[in-house]
Amino acid sequence: MGQVTAGTADLAALVEEVMQLRDLFQRRLLEDRRRQELYDRLCQELDFARSDLVGQFIAPLCRELLLVTDRVGTAGRAGADPAALLVSVLDEISEVLARRGIRPIASIGEEFDPSLHDAVERVPVDSDADQGRILHERRTGYLIDNRVLRPAQVVIGHRIPDDVRPGSA
């Protein structure tokens, strides 16, 4: 009879363990479903935000740029002076960008700032005042609000000490 009670106790322990595992499995399954629902909801919100972004920002910008292309097309058919047309188009595009908070980065004569400028060349200078200063701008950089949209590509001056200059001995 001792074996029957031991077998029953083992069976009861096994049944209890199976029930605990079943409960754990069901809780995990429910948790996974909640996570999936949250993920699906976040994806829907992201899609909505993207469409809102297009509607609020990209579409108006494109409409303004289309006005510029219309003017170029009309002026091209009318035989306008190409140089004057180019200046006019650049001015209008600059205005469109400025209305969107995009402005050029001041560079020439400024102290080199690696967060705003990308040094593409260093040239020797005679003056200590030109050491680390921007002497030439290869490509204009732009800020959107206060964030760098594109750094300016610049040429900076660097002073060579007199004792290192060629011909000084």
Automatic annotation (TrEMBL):
Keyword line: Chaperone, Stress response
Secretion signal, residue range per the UniProt entry: none
Superkingdom assignment: Bacteria
InterPro entries reported in the protein's UniProt record: GrpE, GrpE_head
Pfam families: GrpE
Keyword set includes Chaperone: yes
Keyword Chaperone (UniProt): yes
PANTHER family (alphabetical): GRPE PROTEIN, GRPE PROTEIN HOMOLOG, MITOCHONDRIAL
Protein family according to the UniProt entry: Belongs to the GrpE family.
Function: Participates actively in the response to hyperosmotic and heat shock by preventing the aggregation of stress-denatured proteins, in association with DnaK and GrpE. It is the nucleotide exchange factor for DnaK and may function as a thermosensor. Unfolded proteins bind initially to DnaJ; upon interaction with the DnaJ-bound protein, DnaK hydrolyzes its bound ATP, resulting in the formation of a stable complex. GrpE releases ADP from DnaK; ATP binding to DnaK triggers the release of the substrate protein, thus completing the reaction cycle.
The name this protein goes by in its record: Protein GrpE
Species whose genome carries this gene: Micromonospora zhanjiangensis
